[in-house]
Amino acid sequence: MASESVPTLAMSSCTLGIEKAKLVPAEFQANVLEEIFKYLNVSDLLQVRCTCRRWKETVDDCSELMERVLIKFPENLVFDRNYQPVKLVPAKNVTFTESRVSSVQTWWPPIGHRLVHLTVKNCEMSFSMLVKVLKHTPELKRLDYLCPSYRAAVVDFGNLKLGKLECLSIDVPNEEILDIAIELRNLFPNLKTLKVLKQISTEALIKRKENLGDVLEEVHLKSAGKLMDGLLQIERLKCLDISGIVTNKMLCKIGDACPKLQSIAVNTEQKITLKPTFLEKMIELQNLTIRGREFEEKGHIIGKYV
Protein backbone atom coordinates (compact mmCIF):
# COMPACT_ATOMS: atom_id res chain seq x y z
CA MET A 1 0.00 0.00 0.00
CA ALA A 2 1.47 3.22 -1.12
CA SER A 3 2.15 5.65 1.71
CA GLU A 4 0.23 8.87 1.72
CA SER A 5 2.30 11.94 0.98
CA VAL A 6 2.45 14.44 3.81
CA PRO A 7 2.03 18.00 2.62
CA THR A 8 4.88 20.30 3.61
CA LEU A 9 4.85 24.05 4.11
CA ALA A 10 7.74 25.92 2.76
CA MET A 11 8.67 28.61 5.35
CA SER A 12 10.17 31.81 4.21
CA SER A 13 11.29 34.72 6.35
CA CYS A 14 8.47 36.22 8.38
CA THR A 15 8.32 39.59 10.11
CA LEU A 16 5.75 40.16 12.86
CA GLY A 17 4.40 43.64 13.30
CA ILE A 18 5.17 43.92 17.06
CA GLU A 19 7.06 46.94 18.33
CA LYS A 20 9.38 46.81 21.32
CA ALA A 21 7.58 47.93 24.46
CA LYS A 22 8.63 51.28 25.90
CA LEU A 23 8.36 52.18 29.57
CA VAL A 24 6.70 55.56 29.89
CA PRO A 25 5.79 57.10 33.27
CA ALA A 26 2.06 57.28 33.75
CA GLU A 27 0.50 60.56 32.66
CA PHE A 28 -1.31 61.54 35.83
CA GLN A 29 -2.26 65.06 36.74
CA ALA A 30 0.21 66.81 39.06
CA ASN A 31 -2.22 66.86 41.99
CA VAL A 32 -2.79 63.11 41.61
CA LEU A 33 0.95 62.45 41.57
CA GLU A 34 1.39 64.58 44.68
CA GLU A 35 -1.16 62.49 46.57
CA ILE A 36 0.58 59.29 45.49
CA PHE A 37 4.04 60.59 46.41
CA LYS A 38 2.88 61.55 49.91
CA TYR A 39 2.83 57.85 50.79
CA LEU A 40 6.55 57.44 50.00
CA ASN A 41 9.34 57.76 52.53
CA VAL A 42 11.91 60.48 51.85
CA SER A 43 14.46 58.12 50.30
CA ASP A 44 11.93 56.75 47.81
CA LEU A 45 10.61 60.25 47.15
CA LEU A 46 14.05 61.45 46.09
CA GLN A 47 14.44 58.40 43.87
CA VAL A 48 11.08 59.05 42.21
CA ARG A 49 12.18 62.65 41.67
CA CYS A 50 14.95 61.36 39.39
CA THR A 51 12.60 59.31 37.19
CA CYS A 52 11.72 62.01 34.69
CA ARG A 53 11.56 65.76 34.33
CA ARG A 54 7.82 65.94 34.93
CA TRP A 55 7.97 63.98 38.16
CA LYS A 56 10.93 66.07 39.28
CA GLU A 57 8.95 69.26 38.69
CA THR A 58 5.95 67.80 40.52
CA VAL A 59 8.03 66.95 43.59
CA ASP A 60 9.95 70.23 43.57
CA ASP A 61 6.83 72.36 43.21
CA CYS A 62 4.94 70.66 46.05
CA SER A 63 5.62 72.48 49.34
CA GLU A 64 4.23 69.63 51.43
CA LEU A 65 6.66 67.15 49.87
CA MET A 66 9.67 69.45 50.09
CA GLU A 67 8.97 70.17 53.76
CA ARG A 68 9.82 66.51 54.43
CA VAL A 69 13.29 66.85 52.90
CA LEU A 70 16.30 68.01 54.93
CA ILE A 71 19.63 69.30 53.62
CA LYS A 72 22.32 68.61 56.21
CA PHE A 73 25.59 70.20 55.19
CA PRO A 74 28.79 68.27 55.99
CA GLU A 75 30.56 69.12 59.24
CA ASN A 76 33.84 71.02 59.61
CA LEU A 77 33.29 73.24 56.60
CA VAL A 78 34.01 76.93 56.16
CA PHE A 79 31.15 78.71 54.45
CA ASP A 80 32.66 81.87 52.99
CA ARG A 81 32.27 83.95 49.84
CA ASN A 82 34.11 81.28 47.83
CA TYR A 83 31.85 78.44 48.89
CA GLN A 84 29.91 76.92 46.01
CA PRO A 85 27.43 74.16 46.93
CA VAL A 86 26.64 71.43 44.47
CA LYS A 87 23.22 71.48 42.88
CA LEU A 88 20.83 70.92 45.76
CA VAL A 89 17.33 69.58 46.11
CA PRO A 90 15.01 72.56 46.82
CA ALA A 91 14.39 71.31 50.35
CA LYS A 92 12.69 73.49 52.95
CA ASN A 93 14.84 72.35 55.89
CA VAL A 94 18.56 73.05 56.35
CA THR A 95 21.00 72.14 59.13
CA PHE A 96 24.51 73.49 59.74
CA THR A 97 26.61 71.54 62.28
CA GLU A 98 30.16 71.98 63.61
CA SER A 99 31.12 74.51 60.93
CA ARG A 100 32.04 78.17 60.50
CA VAL A 101 29.81 80.53 58.55
CA SER A 102 31.57 83.77 57.63
CA SER A 103 29.82 84.86 54.44
CA VAL A 104 26.50 84.26 52.70
CA GLN A 105 26.77 86.79 49.89
CA THR A 106 26.14 84.64 46.82
CA TRP A 107 25.45 81.02 47.66
CA TRP A 108 22.85 81.43 50.42
CA PRO A 109 19.94 83.48 48.92
CA PRO A 110 18.78 80.74 46.49
CA ILE A 111 18.69 78.28 49.40
CA GLY A 112 17.33 80.55 52.10
CA HIS A 113 14.32 82.01 50.29
CA ARG A 114 12.41 78.70 50.37
CA LEU A 115 13.29 77.55 53.91
CA VAL A 116 10.75 76.92 56.65
CA HIS A 117 13.16 75.38 59.20
CA LEU A 118 16.77 76.36 59.89
CA THR A 119 19.04 74.68 62.45
CA VAL A 120 22.45 76.07 63.43
CA LYS A 121 24.13 73.67 65.86
CA ASN A 122 27.57 74.03 67.44
CA CYS A 123 28.70 76.44 64.75
CA GLU A 124 30.80 79.58 64.66
CA MET A 125 28.18 82.01 63.44
CA SER A 126 28.06 85.49 64.92
CA PHE A 127 24.76 87.23 65.58
CA SER A 128 25.57 89.75 62.86
CA MET A 129 26.01 86.84 60.45
CA LEU A 130 22.77 85.30 61.71
CA VAL A 131 21.00 88.53 60.76
CA LYS A 132 22.43 88.29 57.23
CA VAL A 133 21.27 84.69 57.02
CA LEU A 134 17.75 85.54 58.22
CA LYS A 135 17.37 88.40 55.74
CA HIS A 136 17.09 85.77 53.01
CA THR A 137 14.56 83.51 54.78
CA PRO A 138 11.17 85.24 54.41
CA GLU A 139 9.25 81.94 54.71
CA LEU A 140 11.01 80.71 57.84
CA LYS A 141 8.72 79.19 60.49
CA ARG A 142 11.22 77.63 62.88
CA LEU A 143 14.73 78.59 63.99
CA ASP A 144 17.01 76.47 66.20
CA TYR A 145 20.11 78.46 67.17
CA LEU A 146 22.04 76.00 69.36
CA CYS A 147 25.61 77.19 69.85
CA PRO A 148 26.39 76.75 73.58
CA SER A 149 30.13 77.42 73.09
CA TYR A 150 29.85 80.54 70.92
CA ARG A 151 28.93 83.72 72.73
CA ALA A 152 26.17 85.79 71.14
CA ALA A 153 26.28 89.58 70.95
CA VAL A 154 23.17 91.67 70.41
CA VAL A 155 23.48 93.67 67.20
CA ASP A 156 21.40 96.15 65.28
CA PHE A 157 18.74 94.10 63.51
CA GLY A 158 17.56 97.10 61.49
CA ASN A 159 14.06 96.65 60.10
CA LEU A 160 14.32 92.86 59.86
CA LYS A 161 11.01 91.13 60.62
CA LEU A 162 10.07 87.50 60.04
CA GLY A 163 6.30 87.43 60.35
CA LYS A 164 5.94 83.70 59.67
CA LEU A 165 8.38 82.48 62.32
CA GLU A 166 6.52 80.78 65.17
CA CYS A 167 9.08 78.53 66.91
CA LEU A 168 12.46 79.54 68.36
CA SER A 169 14.97 77.39 70.26
CA ILE A 170 18.11 79.06 71.61
CA ASP A 171 21.21 77.91 73.48
CA VAL A 172 24.17 80.29 73.85
CA PRO A 173 26.68 80.68 76.72
CA ASN A 174 25.52 84.20 77.62
CA GLU A 175 24.28 84.58 81.18
CA GLU A 176 21.81 87.12 79.80
CA ILE A 177 20.35 84.60 77.36
CA LEU A 178 16.81 85.72 78.21
CA ASP A 179 17.69 89.24 77.08
CA ILE A 180 18.94 87.75 73.82
CA ALA A 181 15.64 85.90 73.49
CA ILE A 182 13.71 89.12 74.09
CA GLU A 183 15.72 90.88 71.36
CA LEU A 184 15.04 88.03 68.96
CA ARG A 185 11.37 88.07 69.79
CA ASN A 186 11.21 91.60 68.45
CA LEU A 187 12.15 90.14 65.06
CA PHE A 188 9.41 87.54 65.25
CA PRO A 189 6.10 89.31 65.97
CA ASN A 190 4.09 86.09 65.66
CA LEU A 191 6.32 83.91 67.85
CA LYS A 192 4.29 81.21 69.63
CA THR A 193 6.91 78.84 71.07
CA LEU A 194 10.20 79.63 72.81
CA LYS A 195 12.65 77.03 74.15
CA VAL A 196 15.60 78.26 76.23
CA LEU A 197 18.03 75.35 76.55
CA LYS A 198 20.75 76.99 78.66
CA GLN A 199 20.46 76.77 82.43
CA ILE A 200 19.21 80.03 83.91
CA SER A 201 18.51 81.26 87.41
CA THR A 202 15.00 81.39 88.79
CA GLU A 203 15.55 85.07 89.56
CA ALA A 204 16.26 85.81 85.89
CA LEU A 205 13.14 83.90 84.89
CA ILE A 206 10.95 85.81 87.35
CA LYS A 207 12.36 89.14 86.19
CA ARG A 208 11.57 88.50 82.53
CA LYS A 209 8.43 86.38 82.69
CA GLU A 210 6.33 89.39 81.63
CA ASN A 211 8.27 89.51 78.35
CA LEU A 212 8.43 85.80 77.61
CA GLY A 213 5.88 84.02 79.78
CA ASP A 214 3.24 83.82 77.06
CA VAL A 215 5.53 81.91 74.65
CA LEU A 216 7.98 80.04 76.89
CA GLU A 217 7.52 76.26 76.53
CA GLU A 218 10.88 74.88 77.70
CA VAL A 219 13.26 76.15 80.37
CA HIS A 220 16.27 74.75 82.25
CA LEU A 221 16.75 76.06 85.80
CA LYS A 222 19.94 76.01 87.87
CA SER A 223 18.00 75.50 91.07
CA ALA A 224 14.46 75.50 92.36
CA GLY A 225 14.83 78.61 94.50
CA LYS A 226 11.77 80.82 94.08
CA LEU A 227 10.54 78.43 91.43
CA MET A 228 6.86 78.67 92.30
CA ASP A 229 6.77 82.44 91.91
CA GLY A 230 8.42 82.15 88.52
CA LEU A 231 6.08 79.49 87.18
CA LEU A 232 2.71 80.83 88.23
CA GLN A 233 2.30 82.88 85.07
CA ILE A 234 3.94 80.47 82.62
CA GLU A 235 0.98 78.23 81.90
CA ARG A 236 2.30 77.32 78.43
CA LEU A 237 5.35 75.57 79.91
CA LYS A 238 5.65 72.02 78.54
CA CYS A 239 9.25 71.02 79.32
CA LEU A 240 11.04 71.77 82.60
CA ASP A 241 14.57 70.81 83.67
CA ILE A 242 15.50 71.52 87.31
CA SER A 243 18.80 71.12 89.15
CA GLY A 244 19.25 71.09 92.92
CA ILE A 245 17.06 69.88 95.74
CA VAL A 246 13.46 69.21 94.72
CA THR A 247 10.77 68.01 97.10
CA ASN A 248 7.53 66.15 96.48
CA LYS A 249 5.59 69.22 97.67
CA MET A 250 7.43 71.37 95.16
CA LEU A 251 6.63 68.99 92.31
CA CYS A 252 2.95 69.05 93.29
CA LYS A 253 2.96 72.84 93.11
CA ILE A 254 4.63 72.67 89.71
CA GLY A 255 1.84 70.40 88.53
CA ASP A 256 -0.76 72.92 89.71
CA ALA A 257 1.08 75.89 88.18
CA CYS A 258 1.88 74.21 84.84
CA PRO A 259 -1.15 72.20 83.68
CA LYS A 260 0.35 71.64 80.20
CA LEU A 261 3.63 70.18 81.44
CA GLN A 262 4.62 67.17 79.32
CA SER A 263 8.21 66.57 80.36
CA ILE A 264 10.12 67.18 83.58
CA ALA A 265 13.71 66.32 84.52
CA VAL A 266 15.20 66.57 88.00
CA ASN A 267 19.00 66.69 88.44
CA THR A 268 20.50 66.46 91.92
CA GLU A 269 23.75 65.53 93.64
CA GLN A 270 22.08 65.05 97.02
CA LYS A 271 19.72 62.41 98.34
CA ILE A 272 16.08 63.39 97.89
CA THR A 273 12.84 61.75 98.93
CA LEU A 274 10.06 61.57 96.37
CA LYS A 275 6.64 59.98 96.36
CA PRO A 276 4.64 59.47 93.17
CA THR A 277 1.71 61.59 94.42
CA PHE A 278 2.95 64.54 92.37
CA LEU A 279 2.12 62.57 89.21
CA GLU A 280 -1.57 63.00 89.98
CA LYS A 281 -1.11 66.74 89.43
CA MET A 282 0.68 66.37 86.10
CA ILE A 283 -2.12 64.97 84.00
CA GLU A 284 -0.39 65.74 80.67
CA LEU A 285 3.03 64.38 81.69
CA GLN A 286 4.65 62.05 79.16
CA ASN A 287 8.31 61.99 80.24
CA LEU A 288 9.80 61.91 83.75
CA THR A 289 13.57 61.85 84.30
CA ILE A 290 15.35 61.81 87.67
CA ARG A 291 19.16 61.99 87.62
CA GLY A 292 21.40 61.82 90.67
CA ARG A 293 23.69 59.77 92.83
CA GLU A 294 20.83 58.40 94.88
CA PHE A 295 17.27 59.24 95.82
CA GLU A 296 14.72 57.72 98.14
CA GLU A 297 11.27 56.65 96.96
CA LYS A 298 8.84 54.95 99.37
CA GLY A 299 11.69 54.40 101.79
CA HIS A 300 13.93 52.57 99.31
CA ILE A 301 17.26 54.06 98.30
CA ILE A 302 17.96 53.69 94.61
CA GLY A 303 21.52 54.36 93.48
CA LYS A 304 22.93 56.00 90.40
CA TYR A 305 20.56 57.10 87.63
CA VAL A 306 16.90 56.58 86.81
TrEMBL record:
Source species, domain of life: Eukaryota
InterPro entries reported in the protein's UniProt record: F-box-like_dom_sf, F-box_dom, LRR_dom_sf
Pfam families: F-box-like (PF12937)
Record-annotated F-box domain positions: 22-69
PROSITE patterns listed in its UniProt record: FBOX (PS50181)
Coiled coil: none
Transmembrane annotation, as ranges: none
CDD domains reported in the protein's UniProt record: F-box_SF (cd09917)
Name the record gives this protein: (northern house mosquito) hypothetical protein
